[in-house]
Amino acid sequence: MLEQITRIFSPADWIAFGVFVAGWSGYSYYADRAARSERGLRGVTAQARLDWARQMVARENRITDAALTGNLMTSVSFYANTTIYIIAGLMAVAGTLDQLIRFTQDLPFAKQTTKSILEAKLFLMVAIFVFAYFKFTWALRQYNFLSILIGGAPSHQANAAALEVHAQKFAALNTLAGDEFNRGIRAYYFGFAALAWFVSPVIFIGVTVLILAVLYRRDFRSQTLAALRR
Questions:
Q1: Is pLDDT at 94 greater than 80 in this prediction?
Q2: For the whole model, what pTM was predicted?
């Protein structure tokens, strides 16, 4: 099976796929775990979540915090449901590959392709959105746990040490859920890059680089980040 997959792709396809995998995995590490990430949107929003947590434990009435958490859950749930429809749509496309071949042949710069190549590329698209679905659903579960922490928060009149411990726990879980949601959104971006592979490996590389530039600018050079830092 592996030998068959190796044969159906050209060297240009393998280079493009390598750039895609290296770009996605490399940027994910850079934005999520490298020291640089603390100076980007992730680090700034993590601090904002800690500020929120400290305000939450100091409040007598936490209805506002429960409502905010519910709003986050609604947003994640929307993406999870949308991802299911995308996966279903991709599976439906798998049954119409002959028409897809005719369509791509009419596109300018499109490379001549076979059914086996299209099946492999379509599998990549499905795998990307399945990955996104798992990230969204795990984020949703974590936000459920976050609502439990709101319900189980100590009284605002408890000692400062107990309140700080709970605030740190709340902020850490909130950040973990936000990170998973961001990874799901990032999969959407790279899903668009993978879509370009249906046209040609050169365009696939170009769109992958463009996606990396867009993500970097938004995470580390955007006006949103500058506003949050003020």
A1: no
A2: 0.88
